[in-house]
Amino acid sequence: MINRLLLFGVVAMGLSSCTKKLDLVPTHGTNSTNLFTSTSAYKQVLAKVYGSFATTGSNGAGSGDIQGIDAGTSDFLRLYWKAEELPTDEAVIQWGDIGIQDFHNMAWTPNNPFITGLYYRSLYQITLANDFIRQSSDANLASKNITGQSADSVKLFRNEARFLRAYQYAIMMDIFAKPPFVDETPVAQGTYPKQKSRAELFTWIEGELKAIEPNLAAARTNEYGRADKAAVWSLLARIYLNAKVYTGIDRSTDAITYSSKVIGAGYSLINQYSQLMLADNNLNASEFIFTINYDGNYTQNYGGTTFLTHAPIGGTAKASDYGVDNAWSGLRTTKALVNKFPGVGAPDLRAQFYTNGQNLEIGSQTVFTDGYMIVKYINKTRAGANGSNQTFVDIDFPVFRLPEMYLIYAEAVLRGGAGGDNVTALNYVNIVRTRAYGNASGNWAAADLTLNNLLDERAREFYWEGFRRTDLIRYGLFTNATYLWPFKGGISGGTGVDDFRNIYPLPSADITANPSLQQNPGY
């Protein structure tokens, strides 16, 4: 685990300013050569690159003050989660912030503050990684007389930073399709970053991940929360599963190959689904492949898992039952997700809904009692004790966990990928379902292994973990009227919308600032 003392240093730097707009060049010291003087110094700065996923950073906290986004709520995960979950059948929100209802109504514009915030947040984190990669080059290490084992350690750190950068570019590829691209090569003064097409960016991400994979720690050998080979394999499996969306070319065979690498690395499911998102879920290392680490005393902001714990609680639910000090009365889910379960709480134990005083039907998105609450994120330990802080939670967020690899394998087999088989695919799905039911009573027969059933299984296993928009797009169900849910497209019974909404717009501010950028079609 990234040392908490280092993380404290990250937070101390990150809270230094909440007034400036995000700049693509960090001004808080990470690009100062005098910081990079030893292996320990490099590790401290690497901790900042990792920590930027969980903190709100400086220069307006990553996206603070951009069109009115509060700096304390602008961390990467909160912004990304909204873009992935709020437009889907899995989430609605009560609040009236400018632009927030546009997600579920599928009416966003290039001026949406949350889309703008995510765009700049991802670019900010790419910039931090770029600077670290540049400062840890072989030439820079030699100039500082960092050699031998010390140099090898820094080179490992460099490859981890390259992974974090590749992950952020994968997010940008999925969300924005063709963002501006900058690597560690300095941009000449007076020039502007140019776009890569979606297919070009896919090729770059794939090549980058394959280049660093041999030089990362072996699967399950790095510190908790740091990237290793299995994190690379997981990201490759994920982008290969979605490759036809990104490039027009099916890569199911590659998805089988890389999900199998992870499955074969010795991971295993924890016993209880309800323990996945608890205050001590760092104990779930057997299942978690790569995480964003949160600590209630050191990563204090109103995003991340703090948002996912507080925001769904309200009405008759007591905040103290979930290890927090207040309820925000914001998030709920729609009946489209609820109805994918055979019941609430049993027999599928993944159904973590709070129903008391809540209506299954949603008459209004802005009435909190319309829609069931989801109480999946709980700031209590397995033993029932509160987390270290009741305002800011201790719950880590798993970016990749083993069940995703099982279900990627199964879906890729059904999509015609080579190197896998239906018997193994069914077994992998039933491993997931056996935990969900506590026994084999919910296991599928061979006839149950279909693409549509797998999509529903992904909803049951991964709801509110930032998958749903991408999954629906891959299945061709996100925009059209084939599959409707309450208030899809802003209509009570749901309606189809134009297909251009499968991709988010580049922010108007960046289109104006960078004349080399072209807006995505439809905006």
Question: Secondary-structure map with pairings?
Answer:
Blueprint: H1 4-14, H2 39-51, H3 76-85, E1 92-93, H4 101-105, H5 113-135, H6 138-143, H7 148-176, E2 180-181, E3 194-195, H8 198-212, H9 229-241, H10 243-247, H11 252-263, E4 288-292, H12 304-310, E5 331-332, H13 335-338, E6 353-354, E7 373-374, E8 397-401, H14 402-414, H15 422-437, H16 451-462, H17 468-474, H18 508-513
Helix pairs in contact: 1-2, 2-5, 2-7, 3-5, 5-7, 7-8, 8-9, 9-11, 9-14, 11-14, 14-15, 14-16
Descriptive overview:
This protein has 523 residues and is mostly helical. Helices cover 40% and strands 4% of the residues. It is built from 18 helices and eight strands. The strands form four sheets. The protein has a two-stranded antiparallel sheet. α1 (4-14) crosses α2. The chain is globular, with a radius of gyration of 22 Å. 53% of the residues are buried. Mean pLDDT is 92; it is low at 1-31 and 58-67.
Task: From the structure above, extract its key features.
523 residues, mainly alpha, two-stranded antiparallel sheet, 8 strands, 4% strand, disordered N terminus
Mean pLDDT: 92
Strand order of the largest sheet: 1-5
Give the helix proportion (percent range). 25-40%
Order of helices and strands: HHHEHHHHEEHHHHEHEHEEEHHHHH
Strand content: under 5%
Number of helices: 18
**Largest sheet features:** 2 strands, antiparallel
Spans where pLDDT lies below 50 across 5 or more residues: 1-31, 58-67
How many strands appear in the DSSP assignment? 8
- Over all CA atoms, what is the radius of gyration? 22 Å
The shape is globular
Helix/strand structural class: mainly alpha
- Termini gap: 43 Å
